[in-house]
From TrEMBL:
UniProt GO molecular function: DNA binding; DNA-binding transcription factor activity
Entry-linked Pfam families: MerR_1
Entry superkingdom: Bacteria
Originating species: Facklamia miroungae
Domain HTH merR-type: 1-68
Alphabetic keyword roster: DNA-binding, Transcription, Transcription regulation
CDD domains: HTH_MerR-like
SMART domains documented for this protein: HTH_MERR (SM00422)
Protein name, as recorded: MerR HTH family regulatory protein
Record flagged with keyword Amino-acid biosynthesis: no
Family annotation (Gene3D superfamilies): 1.10.1660.10
């Protein structure tokens, strides 16, 4: 098909089609007469692009979906959910300004927003898709407190650590697998799961007692050949090895604990909860 036919079918302009061609999203063949010949695959891609653009997706997000498959759309949607959440928080600050709230309080709220956005950006840059978003959600509840005077340099050191952290890389098939597995997980659902984890850490004896059957089933699954030979196990091992090789536990976690008192308190409880879990296993 020639370009004018493609334009009629897709409703895209000549300039738009040429732009997507320059971005490498379509690869029409050049005929002897110099015209471009667009095949059915090019048409399918352009139709998808047209739909996604009408829905407000950025070209970078569309590239991600086209490259990784439809399941990558879930990561895009979670990013948009977070963007909407941040827009709501900024709107509330504007309301505070209208209400005449003092400048110091306004400045504190803006700093909280900026710090959280900075951590979100760094984590999702270092860790692709679901993994970066999952990590951020695990930390987010502990980022809503002002950093105490004298502790700001720990925050800057943490950001510097993330800036120098190499990107966690997955094979294409691994990335598609994890995105497919998490395709129905909204940002709110991730937050709910994390909230339940925090509640379990705060009340470990009660949680362990109420969930003994679940824990037994989970441990059985983790030891099964189905899990041990699964892509999920391979990805989890790769993730843990990445964190260990880059000293994340030795450097990043202590820095987080240093600038967030609530995270430090949670981390101490997490260590105690883990000890109780291990003690329960030894007693069985």
């Amino acid at each position: 098909m020639l370009r004018n036919e493609i334009q009629k079918i897709t409703g895209l302009t000549r300039k738009a089609i040429e732009y997507y061609q320059e971005k490498g999203l379509i690869r029409p063949q050049r005929l002897e007469n110099g015209y471009r010949d667009y095949d059915d695959e090019d048409l399918e891609v352009l139709n998808k692009i047209s739909v996604y653009r009408k829905l407000g997706l950025k070209i970078e997000e569309i590239e991600e979906i086209l490259h990784s498959g439809i399941d990558a759309l879930s990561a895009v949607l979670r990013r948009k959910e977070y963007a909407m959440e941040m827009a709501g928080r900024k709107r509330r600050v504007l309301d505070m300004i209208i209400q005449g709230v003092d400048n110091q309080t306004i400045a504190e709220q803006l700093t909280l927003i900026e710090n959280e956005l900075t951590i979100y950006d760094r984590l999702t840059m270092a860790f692709p898709g679901y993994i970066g978003q999952m990590l951020f959600v695990a930390y987010q509840p502990f980022l809503d407190e002002p950093i105490k005077e004298g502790k700001e340099h720990y925050f800057q050191q943490y950001i510097c650590f993330l800036d120098n952290l190499p990107a966690f890389e997955l094979e294409d098939n691994e990335y598609r697998y994890i995105e497919k597995l998490s395709s129905t997980w909204s940002l709110d659902l991730l937050k709910e799961v994390n909230f339940n984890k925090i509640q379990a850490v705060n009340n470990p004896e009660e949680w362990l007692l109420e969930n003994q059957e679940f824990i037994t089933d989970y441990q059985t699954f983790k030891g099964s050949s189905d899990y041990l030979n699964s892509p999920l196990n391979k990805i989890q091992e790769k993730f843990v090895n990445f964190l260990q090789d880059n000293n994340y536990y030795e450097h990043a976690i202590p820095l987080l604990r240093s600038f967030s008192q609530s995270y430090d308190n949670y981390y101490k409880k997490l260590i105690q909860a883990n000890k109780k879990f291990l003690e329960m296993n030894l007693d069985q």
